[in-house]
C-alpha cells in the first residue's frame, strides 16, 4: 500500500531555514501533522516543523524532554501528533542516516508507525536561493529495522512531495531577507527561555 507524505510550506520553510542557519553543523527537529488511511493508501500530512538541536544535536535526556513537549503542543494544535523528524548532517557530502538521526527517528516511530525521517540534502542547499522546485530532502522510512530511502516504485511505495508546490519560491525570498537567521531551536530556548522555539511568527 502506498504511503504519501505531503509537506506543507510551514514545515518545509522552517526545517530548511534551520539547516541554513547552522549550515556547518548537524541539526534536527520534529515534524507534526496528521495521518489518514483510504483506498489509495496511507496519507501523512506534515503541517509544521519544530527545530530542536544544532551542533551536539542534543543528548538523550533533553531530546526526550523536547519530544514530550512537542507531542503535547501537537495535540493542542488541532489534535495533531508527531509524525516524523528531520535531520541535516554536518558535511555536505554526507547523505547517511547516522546514529543521532536514527535515535530521534526511532523515538518518533515508536508512537507513529508511519513516521518519516526527512534527511536534508546539504549538497543541494546552494539551489535554495534559486527557488528550485525539487525538494531539498530525501524521505526515509523504517523497513526491517533500518531507515531506508523511500522508493515510489517499490513493493511498498513511498512518495514525498511539497503541497502546495509554491514553497521553494517563498523559501528563496526568505533567504534573501536573511529570515533564516531568526529561527530559534530548543537549544536557543535553553540558553534564553524568552526565545520561542515554536517560531510562530517566522513565516508570517
Layout of SSEs?
Layout: E1 3-7, H1 9-21, E2 27-38, E3 41-54, H2 60-76, E4 81-88, H3 99-109, E5 116-120, E6 137-143, E7 146-149, E8 158-162, H4 167-176, H5 186-191
Parallel strand pairs: 1-3, 1-8, 4-5
Antiparallel strand pairs: 2-3, 2-4, 5-6, 6-7
Mean pLDDT: 91
User: What's the alpha carbon Rg, rounded to whole Å?
Assistant: 16 Å
Tell me the number of strands: 8
Order of helices and strands: EHEEHEHEEEEHH
Gist?
28% of the residues lie in helices and 29% in strands.
Written account of the structure:
The protein is α/β, with parallel strands linked by helices. Helices cover 28% and strands 29% of the residues. The chain has five helices and eight strands. The protein has an eight-stranded mixed beta sheet with strand order 7-6-5-4-2-3-1-8. Helix 1 runs parallel beside helix 4. The chain is globular. The protein starts with a strand and ends in a 13-residue tail after the last helix. The model has no long low-confidence stretch (mean pLDDT 91).
Q: Which keywords apply here?
A:
single chain; 28% helix; globular; 204 residues; alpha/beta; 8-stranded mixed sheet
